[in-house]
Write a structure and sequence with these properties.
The protein is of the alpha+beta class. It has two domains: 78 residues, 3-Layer(aba) Sandwich (Glutaredoxin); 122 residues, Glutathione S-transferase Yfyf (Class Pi), Chain A, domain 2 (Up-down Bundle). The chain is built from ten helices and four strands; from the N terminus they run E-H-E-H-E-E-H-H-H-H-H-H-H-H. It has a four-stranded mixed sheet with strand order 2-1-3-4. Helix 1 runs parallel beside helix 3, helix 4 runs antiparallel to helix 6 and helix 4 crosses helix 7. The protein is globular, with a radius of gyration of 17 Å. The N and C termini lie far apart (44 Å).
Length: 223
C-alpha cells in the first residue's frame, strides 16, 4: 500500500463531491494518490463496507485512518500539511468563507437535482428553470458578488486567493457553464478564474477521457 494518502473518488465526469477535495489538494501541491472507482458498478458495490463504509465517495485513506467527507478531508489535509492559505487569513473573511462553504455543503438541493454535474455534456441551457432552481442560482450569484466585493482585492477568487471556498464552488462553476446559466460580469470573471485553474483543467480533461455513461445523469442532457 502507498505510504501517501489515497483519495478514492468517483467518475470525474459526474462526481462533484470528489472534485472538491481533489481540486483543493492538487492546487496546493499536496502529495497524494488518486483511485477512481466507477459509480453504479459492481466494482463500486464491492468497496462499500470495506473502503467505503458510508457508501459514498470521496474517501481519504491515510494509513489506518479513513476520512469520508469532502470538507473533513480538506480540513484534515490542511492540518497535516499546514496549508496556511486554505482559509482566508483575516478573521471576518475566514468566518464568511466558512459560512459560504457550510451553505454549499448542506444546501442548494434544487440546483443539484436539476443540474447534475456532467463534464462531457454539450453546453446547453435547461429547457425550463423552475422557481426553486432560480432561487438557488440567484443566491449563489449573490454570495459570489458579496464575497468578491468585500474580500476579493488580492486576487480573482471569492476571497482573493484560492481557498477551500473556491474548491467547494468549483462544481457550481462547472454546472453554470454546462447549462449555460446567464452570469453577470462579476460571476463571469470569477467563473473564468476557476475554470482556468491548471488543476481544474486537468480534472476536466481526465473527465472527457472517461467512457462510462450513467443514464440518471444523462437524462437531463436529453431533455
Amino acid at each position: 500500500m502507498s505510504s501517501r494518502p489515497v483519495l478514492i473518488i468517483g467518475n470525474r465526469t459526474y462526481s462533484s463531491w470528489s472534485l472538491r477535495p481533489w481540486l483543493f489538494l492538487r492546487h496546493f501541491g499536496v502529495d497524494f494518490d488518486t483511485e477512481m472507482v466507477p459509480l453504479d458498478t459492481p466494482q463500486f458495490a464491492a468497496r462499500v463496507g470495506v473502503d467505503l463504509p458510508s457508501g459514498r465517495v470521496p474517501m481519504l485513506i491515510d494509513g489506518d485512518l479513513k476520512v469520508w467527507d469532502s470538507l473533513a478531508i480538506c480540513e484534515y489535509m490542511r492540518e497535516t500539511h499546514k496549508i496556511a492559505d486554505a482559509w482566508p487569513r483575516e478573521r471576518a473573511a475566514r468566518a464568511t468563507a466558512r459560512s459560504v462553504v457550510a451553505e454549499m455543503h448542506s444546501g442548494f438541493a434544487a440546483l443539484r437535482n436539476a443540474m447534475p454535474l456532467n463534464l462531457r455534456r454539450e453546453q446547453q441551457p435547461l429547457p425550463t428553470v423552475d422557481a426553486d432552481v432560480a432561487r438557488d442560482i440567484e443566491r449563489i450569484l449573490s454570495l459570489w458578488r458579496d464575497c468578491r466585493a468585500r474580500f476579493g482585492a488580492e486576487g480573482p477568487f471569492l476571497f482573493g486567493r484560492f481557498s477551500i471556498a473556491d474548491a467547494f464552488y468549483a462544481p457550481v462553476v462547472a454546472r453554470f457553464h454546462t447549462y449555460a446559466v446567464p452570469l453577470d460580469a462579476v460571476a463571469a470573471a470569477y467563473s473564468t478564474a476557476v475554470r482556468d485553474l491548471p488543476a481544474m483543467q486537468e480534472w476536466r480533461e481526465l473527465a472527457r477521457a472517461e467512457s462510462q455513461r450513467i443514464e440518471k445523469y444523462e437524462r437531463v442532457a436529453a431533455a
